[in-house]
Amino acid sequence: MVKRPFIRKQKKKKHGTTFWDNEYKNSDHLQLSTEHSEDLEKFTRWIIRRKRGDILGVGQSALDVGCGNGRNLIFLSNTFSMQGVGYDISAEAINQATLASRDLPLTYTARSIAGLLEVSDNSQSLVLDMMTSHFLNEKERLALRDEIHRVLMPGGFLFMKTFLADGDLHTRRLLREFPGKEKYTYIHPVIGVPEYVYTEEVLTEFLAEKFIIHKVYRSHKHVLKGKARKRRTVSIYVEKDFH
């Protein structure tokens, strides 16, 4: 009898929506927090200092395009008594968000953020795009920007956080080793889907076509002794003109 060599069974890779559903159930690759984003809290403090707390007040609504488990909408509702609408591609994330928001005026839908947003014109005082729209292609990113402009009320704000290509060694490696079809796009080696990375110049020009740009915050400590550390990110505060 010929003895067969031992072959370790490989786990089947999960891509796209399946990946995110699995992560929200088991967190095999990412650390998904239930605590709200410190960057979002920083944004709300800035808004209040500028005496624009009206966008965070009772009766105002926030749309989160990539809400995950609802943590940031829950923060806005608990802290400022806001209403909210959340979209996420993961049904598991939406289930978790719904359970965590039982007593809050928040609604969630499992859907892609590509295409028309299911909210009325000028109905949202705040839109969140936090580490989400970089999964869209160029045409979809353009359409989402225009949809966000449509649904924001005059004087409303978009708070956006995304990866930053400038000076990021991880981005440089991913673009080189896993190139996508679009410039500044790579195929994520774990999730298996295209991911786009902005330069600051491209991002600000892209948003300035529709919005007033107020603040840009870039993360630091991304390189130590020539070696890559955490991914570099950028947060940007932009306003829909009153006119």
UniProtKB/TrEMBL annotation:
Residues 63-156 form the Methyltransferase domain. Pfam families: Methyltransf_25 (PF13649). InterPro entries: Methyltransf_25 (IPR041698), SAM-dependent_MTases_sf (IPR029063). SUPFAM superfamilies: S-adenosyl-L-methionine-dependent methyltransferases. It comes from the Bacteria. This is Methyltransferase domain-containing protein. It comes from Candidatus Kaiserbacteria bacterium CG_4_9_14_0_2_um_filter_41_32.
